[in-house]
Amino acid sequence: MHTVEVTTGLANWAVTEIVAGLAEGQQVVVNVDKPGLADGAAAVPGGGRP
Question: What is the pLDDT of residue 17?
Fold first, then answer.
């Protein structure tokens, strides 16, 4: 995984629209508050909200 700059659109307390910076269907990590998490770390796709 790696850091990508995105442009956000509409947002509320539960969701944020990404309007630029990602390709359609590209997966993202939404919870990055883990110690030691950095660019290049491995990630395993999991469940969560679509």
Answer: 92
